[in-house]
Amino acid sequence: DWTMGAYREEAIRLIREQVGDQKVICGLSGGVDSSVAAVLIHEAIGDQLTCVFVDHGLLREGEAEQVVTMFRDHYNMPLIHAQEQDLFLDALEGVSDPEVKRKTIGKLFIDVFQKHASEVGGATFLAQGTLYPDVIESVSFSGGPSVTIKSHHNVGGLPEKMGLKLVEPLRELFKDEVRALGRELGLPDSFIGRHPFPGPGLAIRCPGEITREKLAILRRADAVFIDQIRKHGLYDEIWQAFVALLPVRTVGVMGDGRTYDYACAMRAVTSVDGMTADYYPFSHEFLGETATRIINEVRGINRVTYDVTSKPPGTIEWE
Ligand code: XMP
User: E-assigned strands of the chain?
Assistant: First the structure.
């Protein structure tokens, strides 16, 4: 794509001009935006960039390994893998209110990011994968009355708190343009086409109180569901798909025995921007096959449901 080729060159020139010989830190989430921003900035200034990847223990199966392998081993970027699972999970113990969960995670995230970023020493810039719609949204939110349905976990206020200037090379781009730029930079399609994943991660897909046991069960079920979606060639037709582990045990039969295990809900939606969404119309064969696989392969789940709520009135996530 010639447009993106030109954009890439110009963006690199601007990053070099802005940063000079200073150091930059970048929070890497594994999502498309921060990944593209990191690769672009790394191309511009090389090892003056260090990425910080916070593992809050609420990631999906294999996710941390994928991110570390990709950026540290494939792109040779200086990367701090902040393994703070215990800190987050201990703080979340006994917490069941969705907003308290988000705030607990958001606050710790900032503390942990700040702590690890300070290991870099002498950084003067913070890189963020802010997109054009984010810029617009924050302006209109601050301008008028707004109803906050869910407090999004982000790093708002972090640059001021850390005394850092911002580098935001994607500020003029829409999502599809970021994807095109990512392809131009050689990021694999498996990264570029990834479904969005919320900052609080699996915490908001585990309604009620979170435990390590529940998270382990949820991770396995989610992996089976996504595997099924990929095997049936449906991944790219879906905006987001995941399993939510319900805080309820139900009775089942397995062989000659009675089981008493968790129920889960599969969720898959189509959407353009996440603001509205329709549930994905899977075939009954697909639903039945996937339910059977989850029950057979995931110890701890004996009942599978499919969430057919659209947004509105539902939200995409369960919390
Ligand atoms: P809802 O559930 O509000 O989600 O329909 C809309 C989109 O936003 C994502 N989401 C979040 N992302 N922090 C995030 O970074 C959050 O707290 C959060 N809550 C929801 C959700 O995954 C979907 O893409």
Answer: 23-27, 49-55, 79-83, 123-127, 165-167, 240-254, 257-270, 278-279, 301-306
Residue ranges, the chain, pLDDT below 70: 1-2, 137-157
How far is the centre of ligand 1, averaged over its atoms, from the C-alpha of 4 (Å)?
Answer: 28
- CA–centroid distance, 160 to ligand 1, in Å, is 25
Average model confidence (pLDDT) across the chain: 92
Q: Pocket of ligand 1, candidates 108, 155, 317, 319: which has the most ligand atoms within 8 Å of its Cβ, to mutate?
A: 317
Residues belonging to the chain: 319
pLDDT at 146 (0 to 100): 39
**The predicted structure's pLDDT at residue 16:** 98
- Residue range(s) in the chain whose domain bears CATH number 3.40.50.620: 2-192
Q: Is 30 annotated as a binding residue?
A: yes
Q: What is the pTM of this model?
A: 0.91
Closest ligand 1 atom, residue 152 Cα = 17
Instruction: Please tell me whether 155 is known to bind a ligand.
Output: no
- Pocket residues: Cβ below 6 A from ligand 1: 102, 150, 152-153, 196, 198-200, 240, 274, 311, 315-317
Of 121, 109, 218, 120, the closest CA to residue 155 belongs to 109
Domain spanning 2-192, CATH class? alpha beta
Max CA-CA distance within the chain?
A: 71
Domain with CATH 3.30.300.10 in the chain: 206-306
CATH number of 206-306: 3.30.300.10
